[in-house]
Amino acid sequence: MRSLQLFLFVIALFSCSSNNEAITYKDPTQPIDKRVDDLISRMTLEEKIYQLNQWTVGINTNANNISDQMKKVDPKIGSLINFSDDPAFRNEVQKKAIEESRLGIPILMGFDVIHGFRTVYPIALGQACSWNPELVKKASQVAAKESRMSGVDWTFSPMIDVARDARWGRISEGYGEDPYANAVFGVATVEGYQGSDLNNDYTVAACLKHYVGYGESEGGRDYHYTEVSDQTLWDTYLPPYEACIKAGAATVMSAFNDISGVPATSNYYTLTEILKEKWGHEGFVLSDWNAVQQLINQGAAKDRKQAAELAFNAGVEMCMVDNCYFDYLAELVDEGKVSMDLIDSSVARILRLKFQLGLFEKPYTDVISPEKRYLQPESKKIAEQLAEESIVLLKNQEKILPLKGKNIALIGPMAEEQETLLGAWSYHGKLEHVVSIADGLKDELAGKATITIAKGCDFDGDDISGFAKAKSVARAADVVVLCLGEKRYWSGEDGNRHEIEYPAIQEELVKEVAKTGKPIVLLLSSGRTMALKNVEPLADAMVMVWQPGIMAGKAIAGVLSGRVNPSGKLPVTFPYATGQIPLYYNMRQAARLDQGVYEHLTKKPLYWFGHGLSYTSFKYGDVKLSAEKITKTEKLLAEVIVENTGDVEGQESVLWFISDPYATITRPMKELKFFEKKTIVPGEKVKYTFEIDPMEDLSYPNRKGERILESGEFFVLVGNQKVKFELID
Ligand code: GLC
Question: Which atom of ligand 1 is nearest to the CA of 65?
Answer without folding.
Answer: 7
